[in-house]
């Protein structure tokens, strides 16, 4: 077994939605990014890569590479899962936390879990998505952006 963890942060910018766990969540701000800015899936990609000591998301999908401009982060997650599979590893479960004052994440958790389960080849009950504010403290508390953390357990196929 291997365990990996990931952390990602994106700043708010002009926009009318944010992508979180593959779900388009209506919001009065967007997230600044080279890709679709899905901070949740980026943290999860880093957790899978970290478990296998394969570097990080920026190593495999460099922000300097136009191929990843506006990329669908579910494609990145599936590519990371494929890298793991090629090396004889698959996910067992994943636990994620989204950190922001807004938008409210709770109403979208079920859809997020479904997308992540599909992309990692897991049952939905092996995927946990939680949310918290920081009680108005720090950059998340000031509404400057969204952070996400992920932990994933991997086993040999
Ligand atoms: N963006 C968010 C933040 C929180 N939630 C839900 O609210 C609960 C209470 O948040 P606290 O920061 O006061 O602990 C939290 O447990 C989440 O269920 C949310 O949906 N979206
Ligand atoms: C996802 C990638 C793709 O180029 O770019 P961003 O969308 O800016 O996101 P980040 O979390 O900075 O991860 C780096 C890149 O791999």
From TrEMBL:
GO biological process, one term: isopentenyl diphosphate biosynthetic process, methylerythritol 4-phosphate pathway
InterPro entries reported in the protein's UniProt record: MECDP_synthase (IPR003526), MECDP_synthase_CS (IPR020555), MECDP_synthase_sf (IPR036571)
Annotated pathway: Isoprenoid biosynthesis; isopentenyl diphosphate biosynthesis via DXP pathway; isopentenyl diphosphate from 1-deoxy-D-xylulose 5-phosphate: step 4/6
Feature type site, description Transition state stabilizer: 34, 133
Cofactors required: a divalent metal cation
Lineage: superkingdom: Bacteria
Binding residue positions for 4-CDP-2-C-methyl-D-erythritol 2-phosphate: 8-10, 34-35, 56-58, 132-135, 139, 142
Pfam families: YgbB
Family under the similarity heading: Belongs to the IspF family.
Subunit note: Homotrimer.
Protein name as catalogued: 2-C-methyl-D-erythritol 2,4-cyclodiphosphate synthase
Species the sequence originates in: Marinihelvus fidelis
Gene encoding the protein: ispF
């Amino acid at each position: 077994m291997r365990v990996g963890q990931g952390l990602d942060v994106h700043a708010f910018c002009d926009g009318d939605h944010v992508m979180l766990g593959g779900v388009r969540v209506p919001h009065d701000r967007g997230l600044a990014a080279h890709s679709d800015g899905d901070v949740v899936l980026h943290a999860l990609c880093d957790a899978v890569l970290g478990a296998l000591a394969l570097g990080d998301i920026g190593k495999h999908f460099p922000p300097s590479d136009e191929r990843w401009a506006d990329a669908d982060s579910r494609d990145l997650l599936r590519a990371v899962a494929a890298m793991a599979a090629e090396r004889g590893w698959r996910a067992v479960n994943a636990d994620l936390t989204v950190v922001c004052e807004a938008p409210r994440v709770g109403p979208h958790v079920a859809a997020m879990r479904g997308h992540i389960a599909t992309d990692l080849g897991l049952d939905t009950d092996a995927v946990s998505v939680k949310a918290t504010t920081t009680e108005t403290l720090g950059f998340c508390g000031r509404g400057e952006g969204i952070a996400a953390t992920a932990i994933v357990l991997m086993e040999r196929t």
